[in-house]
Write a structure and sequence with these properties.
elongated; 3 helices; single chain; alpha+beta
Length: 93
């Protein structure tokens, strides 16, 4: 489901789907359709499964790297690894 909203009423869990439209390049859509056909599932299901798998992998990468891992991506004067030199950069030490 592209976006799931979970609501619980008196021990009943309702899953609501949100429908939205995406514009895809023709070659990508063709590839999606062929892969879904190979798996014998609808294209929409293949897209949902792929998105869920990618989101789980993304969350796992973020969790493994730690909350401040993005600091390593910052570059000052084209020098990588700013997080290891943060005091020097901020305070000139």
């Amino acid at each position: 489901m592209h976006s799931l909203i979970r609501r619980q009423y008196h021990d009943i869990l309702l899953l609501m789907s949100v429908k939205f439209q995406v514009t895809l390049p023709e070659p990508l859509f063709t590839e999606l359709r062929l892969e879904a056909g190979r798996r014998d599932i609808p294209v929409a299901e293949f897209i949902r499964n792929t998105m869920q798998r990618e989101l789980r992998a993304s969350r796992k990468r973020v969790n493994e790297a730690g909350p401040l891992a993005w600091l390593d991506q910052i570059q000052v004067d084209d020098e990588p690894g700013v997080s290891s030199r943060i005091d020097e950069i901020l305070y000139g030490e």
